[in-house]
Fold:
Amino acid sequence: MHNHSRQYGLTVVSFVLLMIFIGSVALLILKILPIYLDHSKIVSAFEAVESTENLEQKTAREIRTMFDNHFNINYVDRIKASDIDIIKTDNQHIKIVLDYEVIEEIAGNLSVLVQFHEQIEQGKP
Structure:
């Protein structure tokens, strides 16, 4: 004979805890995903500028204008072209660096910090 009095499944407490966990993960994804989507637009702008011919011969103003155009087209609001450091040693070498961080409030006093670093280096050092 089989004993059918054993019950399988979730209790109300375990169901509530499972829903809280799933909700927390969903909230975290909804808060962090836009940060990484914006960063992918910034990376594509860096790739486009890096593929520019004779980049090391362009002025800092021309390079910032190129970044500004890419940021406007892709609706990047978190950073501006003026946030990018452009270091030119001469007409043979250029280094373009962007370091930025995004702080996103999750709930109450709980926040998440995401840091990014992008760099282009071209020419002879």
